[in-house]
Specification:
By secondary structure, the chain is of the alpha+beta class. Helix content is 30%, strand content 32%. It is built from five helices and seven strands, in the order ββββαααβαβαβ. The strands form two sheets. Strands 4-1-7-5-6 form a five-stranded mixed β-sheet. A two-stranded antiparallel ribbon has the order 2-3. Helix 1 packs parallel to helix 3. The radius of gyration is 15 Å and the shape is globular. The N and C termini lie close together (6 Å). Bound molecules: zinc ion. The site of zinc ion has 5 residues, from strand 1 and helix 1.
Length: 158
């Protein structure tokens, strides 16, 4: 069995009055991510990790933010398209580990639903999809609530 690992990282600016989509879920928040798509920083990091593991480039190559068809797009569609790309190369998900870094709101209560949504798209079980949350202890741009960071590591089998 061919095992391949990949990592992904994504950043988005937070702005008042936008929706906060994280892990495919709409989170109640007074700020949301500014982006060409729905700005789901966690799903973007996971897509990049999957593409990296399969040696298929990055999310910007496959879904450029200059293309009208991706404007405001639900990132669950991007995750599904990414999964189809890696499946086309004969890859399946072994597991994903990820971390979202933001000051607020607290997202711990939404993590089970995120794991369920992501695992459904990736044809695996929630046990194989880990989502963690942390803050930067009020330091830096995440601490000032100016932005969000997400990181993901994926293991694929071929
Ligand atoms: Zn992004």
């Amino acid at each position: 069995m061919n095992l391949r690992t990949g990592q992904g990282i994504d950043f988005h600016r937070l702005e008042r009055g936008l929706n906060l989509w994280l892990g495919g879920i709409l989170i109640p928040s007074d700020k949301g991510c500014k982006a060409h798509s729905d700005g789901d920083v966690l799903l973007h990091a996971i897509c990049d990790a999957m593409l990296g593991a399969a040696g298929l480039g990055d999310i910007g190559q496959h879904f450029p933010d200059t293309r009208q068809e991706f404007k405001g797009i639900d990132s669950k569609i991007l995750l599904k398209k990414t999964y189809e790309l890696i499946k086309g190369k004969g890859f399946l998900i072994v597991n994903i580990d990820s971390t979202v870094c933001l000051e607020k709101p607290k997202i711990a209560g939404f993590i089970p639903e995120m794991r369920s949504v992501i695992s459904d798209i990736l044809e695996t079980t929630p046990e194989n999809i880990s989502v963690k949350a942390t803050t930067t202890e009020k330091l830096g741009f995440t601490g000032r609530e100016e932005g969000i960071v997400a990181m993901a590591v994926v293991l694929l089998k071929q």
